[in-house]
Amino acid sequence: MKTHLISGGCGFVGRNMVKRLYKKTNDRILFIDNLSVGTHPSNWVGQPLKRKVKEIEIYGKDERLIFLESDFLKTLNNLKKDSNYFNTEFDLGIEKFADVYHFAAIVGGRAMIDGDPIQVALDLSIDAEFFYWISRHKPDRVLYPSSSAAYPVSLQTEANTIQLKESDIDFNNMGQPDMTYGWTKLTGEFLAKITAKHYGVNITCIRPFSGYGEDQDYSYPTPAIARRAVFKEAPFEVWGSGHQGRDFVHIDDVLDCIEVAMEKIHDGTAINIGQGILTSFRDLIKLFCEFADYSPEIKPLLDKPVGVYSRYCDMTWVKENLGWEPKISIKEGMKRVYDAVMEREKQLGNLKD
Fold first, then answer.
1. N or C: which end of the chain has fewer CB within 10 A?
2. Confidence band (pLDDT; 50, 70, 90) for 302?
């Protein structure tokens, strides 16, 4: 039986990947998370806890879901000391990982990126240790999630906003990425290229734009805005002017694109994942308020951090080279989020049927 590894497996993207692999394959999934921002699997994995082995929890009758609560950097250090760590410590019988998905990172919204940039820079140490281990372990395939924050901020200003193409990042002619988060992801892409070329590891890099989905927590802007619309906030507050825009893409589309990309890209090439559509936060508020059937005044909060003015992608390369396009429209995806938030608030007793 194949075994896949997912770091950061209890975060938003990680847990959706865990559920996707469990549903679509008959393979084992070992996922690791320190739960600093992730959600314990008992709340979302949908399978019973079968047994425990030391710090490891094994879920499902078929025992294909294996959770280790640990800081991934600590796990990487244990693997550096003992390449057979998962077997000697937990007797998992893993000779080699098939696919490895590296979602572990110091993450946060705009307040974290702007407010504590050196904490975010710790991602550099996580990624360096990760690629060192990958170069030795050599799994079948590796996914490295970069970010749209890696793109030059000079291309995302109010006076100069363009659809960002993969070629707008050129390691021979560098622009300035978005804070330390952008720099860490850009460095990760460079390490991915080096590891693929010099160590013969199959690596795919992605630059997802503003991912969202029904099971995001309220620390993310999309469900937070949806919740405020559910409760019919008026006036409706928005960080900044609200005219700043993003490229919102549903998590199901993100995972579909990852699947296609990992089949076809092996040299560390990074691709965009987005709709290719710019949606302002005012537009997003108006859409959620349409679902809620009211029309409030929008109140700008000009003292809040907002990041770049506009960030959206060009999906031409992906369409032409991978034959992939997103399927879930903004309106359909946001309605799913709105309905999920409403149901969540009803279950919490905050809304009546």
1. C
2. very high
> For residues 319 and 250, what is the distance between their CA atoms, to the nearest angstrom?
17
Taking CA atoms, 310 is separated from 22, 31, 209, 246, in Å, by: 36, 34, 11, 6
Q: Selecting from 1.10.10.10, 3.40.50.920, 3.30.830.10, 3.90.25.10, what CATH number does the domain 221-246+278-310+329-347 have? A: 3.90.25.10
AA letter at 40: H
The model's pTM is 0.96
Mean pLDDT value of segment 231-240: 96
The helix or strand, by DSSP H or E, that contains position 312, with its residue range, turns out to be strand 310-313
Do residues 127 and 188 touch, judged by C-beta distance below 8 A?
yes
For residue range 35-47, list pLDDT tens digits in order.
999 999 999 999 9
Residue 102's pLDDT band (cuts 50, 70, 90): very high
